[in-house]
Amino acid sequence: MVRMVAAVAAFVAVLALAAMWFVGRETGGGDQFAQCRTSQVAGGTSAIGGAFELVHEDGQTVTDKDVLTEPSLIYFGYTYCPDVCPLDATRNAEAVEILEGKGDLVTPVFITIDPERDTPDVLKEFTDYLHPRMVGLSGSAEQIKAASQAYRTYYKKQAPEDGDEEYYLVDHSTFTYLTLPGHGFVEYFRRDISAEDMAQRVGCFVENM
Fold first, then answer.
1. Residue 110 Cα distances to 67, 84, 168, angstroms
2. 3-class DSSP assignment, residue 107
């Protein structure tokens, strides 16, 4: 009898552990996006993102609350970038197109790290070419620096080549950041991800909002 009770107790304990594992897997320990995440952020997602004040491509000053009103893909780059930025921004636009086809509206956002050359007019021409809903943001050097620091990005202006003050490159990080209304930053994407894979992963977050 004692053995039977012990066996039953052990069986119940196994079931309880299995249930806890299943629930934990489904909820991610309280993280509603656990099944969507493939990256880890030192300090957690709260360590990235935050308020910013920048200049919209249409000329008006805006804040993050004005721009990030729906799921958004944020990229820091510059329009004079010879290769990386156009490719990454195009990939982001393609991912947004795929998501639109599935009924998910996501805003592609391009924040310049080269405000000296990337005026609102320059940004507008660049973003309109890539996607009609892509938002270009510029601002003062201080505003750009504050936004970059909020998202923990890196950029550094290089010395002009051949003494031409108007021709220079800017080294910079190349992550794309996903933000969601009410949640802020939730995920980042490296530049080696395809538009299809990005759309699939973003879609997971959107569906679990």
1. 11, 13, 20
2. strand
Which pTM does this prediction carry?
0.83
Q: Which of 9, 50, 59 is nearest to 149 (CA)?
A: 50
Tokens of 84: 């990386």
- The one-character DSSP state at 109 is E
76 three-class SS? strand
Residue among 202, 157, 187 nearest 38 (CA): 187
Whole-Å CA distances, 86 to 91, 99, 174, 180, 186: 8, 20, 11, 24, 24
Q: Where are the alpha helices (DSSP H) in the chain?
A: 2-27, 64-67, 84-101, 120-130, 141-150, 195-207
How many angstroms separate the CA atoms of 191 and 118, rounded?
22
Please tell me the distance from the alpha carbon of residue 203 to that of residue 103, in angstroms, as a whole number: 10
State pLDDT tens for residues 72-125: 999 999 999 999 999 999 999 999 999 999 999 999 999 999 999 999 999 999
